[in-house]
Structure of Rhamnose ABC transporter substrate-binding protein:
Amino acid sequence: MFKPLLRHTGTAALCAALLAVSCAVSAADLKSGLKIAFVPKQINNPYEVIADDGGMAAIKEFGGVGKVVGPSDAGASSQVQYINTLITQHQDAIVIAANDANAVVPYLKKAMGQGIKVVTFDSDTAPEGRQLFVNQANAEGIGRGQVQLVSKLMGGEGEFAVLSATPNATNQNTWIKWMQEELKKPEYSKIKLVKIAYGNDDDQKSFVETQGLLQAYPNLKAIVAPTTVGIAAAARYISSSSSKGKVAVTGLGTPNQMRAFVKNGTVTAFQLWDPNQLGYLAAYAAAALSSGKISGKEGESFDAGKLGKRTIGPQGEIILGPPTTFDASNIDNFNF
Ligand code: RAM
């Protein structure tokens, strides 16, 4: 299993033992005082807050100047005004979780035209909108894994619905596409995806959409919400409804938001990665680009602090690592 929080303990201990003389991570190689701005999908989404915190921690490590700016809703063009301001401020890099694959591209291109490096994380733009995409995990693996998990929870048959984020979210749409691919396999012939609903990564709308799904599909056996906002809202609705214990809730959630629902029997299992590490990795990628250590080409490597050396894959993608499945047996080992 993925043990994200412990991976570099050995290196850290060794560095301490060597009095950090030769272990000054990559900080010494990076330009000092880099101005790096994070633009999350939404400023108040708990997942994005954890990722942004990871980014700010990395920036502190290498002596840069970090900040987080962004909209309060995940609408397609809601990030444009923030990008424009960051261009005016001559930031060295913009690290953005894009709310739409295309809406922000002209503005990010303008930024790159002025020498600002652009890294997407969590939710990508079209490739021409950025130099690098820091992805939490392989998108195909996430999508197929969600179907494998829900199939197990449904006993291999019945109807399920997806409760997604916004209809334009690049990350959720890619995962759903892979879920639909996985569903074509013969072992899922008794499972039917009856509806894809959108809660817009808004807690209240996700809550109401959950209620709507249960009313519209009385035989529903599961809801898969591949969004931390959606899964928490769906679990909250179901935990106090007559569907508790009858309709499974799964998807992607943070252990801290989902713990109560695992303990009270509403949720059996769900998945995620460590968003803090995602932001941390994205900040190091941005700094390596801004310091001229990498240009964004496949095969180039850079030092990502406590995450070690990372290599750029096809189409400028850098992958953090595989997701973890959380359930009652391990959820208390995680605190994010
Ligand atoms: C929500 C956001 C984010 C996604 C997670 C899983 O917080 O939609 O983009 O990666 O869920």
